[in-house]
Amino acid sequence: MIVMKFGGTSVEDSDAIRKVIEIVRTELHRNPIVFVSACAGVTNQLLKVADLSAAGKKDEANDYITAIRTRHEKLVDELIHSELPKNYLKGKISVYAHELKNLSQAISVIGEITGRSRDTIASYGERLSSMIIAQAMEESSLKSMLVDAREFMITNDSFTKAVPIFPVVEERAKKLIEPLVLNGYVVVTQGFIGATQSGITTTIGRGGSDYSASIIGSLLDAAEIQIWTDVDGVLTADPSIIPGARRIKRMSFNEASELAYFGARVLHPKTILPAIEKNIPVYVRNSRNPSYQGTLIRRSDGNEECIAKSIAYKERTTLLNIESSRMFLAPDFLEAIFSVFSKYHTIAHAVATSEVSVTVAIEDTSRLDDIKREISEFAEITSSGGKAIVCVVGENIRNNPGVVGRIFSSLRDIRINMISQGASEINIGFVVDDDDIEEAVRRLHNELFSNTSSQELSSEIFD
Ligand code: ASP
Predict the structure, then answer these.
(1) Which of 230, 265, 293 is a domain's end point?
(2) Which residues lie with the beta carbon below 6 Å from any ligand 1 atom?
(3) Among residues 168, 197, 230, which one ends one of the domains?
(4) Residue nearest to atom 6 of ligand 1 (CA)
């Protein structure tokens, strides 16, 4: 059994969906379970519906609902030719559009939106795409079955970022999905959405379809998890900055998770955690270019071929400089600081400490005022925005101390606001001004990945 997940751009229109069906066909002998996202852009539009409704802008919300309806009706017209399923799907789309209008109306009367309503509204994107794709498979003579993820992806009620309850998910998935797969059905289901034990719709966080796929892959002991997207795999750097960025053929789980956390856009940060637990290989592949092998992410065998694998960055971060007023000894000082971050659910993406001062890089500044107020009760705190964390990732960094020197000498005159190296020593992160990102990434890529300057690059692992 394998799990295949197709992201929004892989199912954005009827041509893309036809490609998906052909890709799934080539894997039929491996019993695929197929997770799909909403068609590209639809989740954003649905969340817009939620916001506009809360702001009382019902007519604008209705325009979005109509656009979503028309787009999916067009998909049905282009993909489904048998009369009965075509009418059934069009009827369903119409019911969903009415439900959305009713929700929008109710929210606009109340004038505010809860996480629970946001999740219900957002869920329609995946529910629409999946039902059309499952039927389109049937039309292309793939024996398929649509399974509603809310029947098995059981979560807590932290709406908009609900946490799956693994033992329940496992029990339900084994009961619902496994028998269908064993009977030769291609199970088609939704990423991203779930439900509480009492059946209220939830979502597991933006971009969460990868995570849905990997949870089920892990719980059902899949032989492989395939994440199909619109790029050729994980690259050595963001191609919008480095047009010649190269595909990485193989990387370790640790490298992939560091990259995802530090901004590489191909993978959702949580994706590979369940895969790591069961040591299930994850392939990142391009549905527009299926003959390409993509990137294989797997447990490191300790023989990573080169020092650095990739450069990632996170823009728009804010640096907080916190200096002890010397009333605290170091351990209490750190504890006091991080309990404030924890209280306001703000993630520290990079940290550098000395005995009396701590520098923290954060992305989410929604609670910055509260954080500053509380910390200023026991320390001096200043903040500066407009920063970016740049991060070089590679298992072999730890075995090659010289690489740190190369990294920083290549950056020479670029102002570095902070440096941090994680305990795993597979990444080196530093903070630069937002305006310097492109230059920093270009110089690093040149230093670490251009064949002329980097002897230890084995061409075998890059394309
Ligand atoms: N459709 C959802 C989103 O856009 C989930 C996903 O595609 O992973 O966030």
Answers:
(1) 230
(2) 7-8, 37-38, 43, 125, 191-192, 206-209
(3) 230
(4) 207
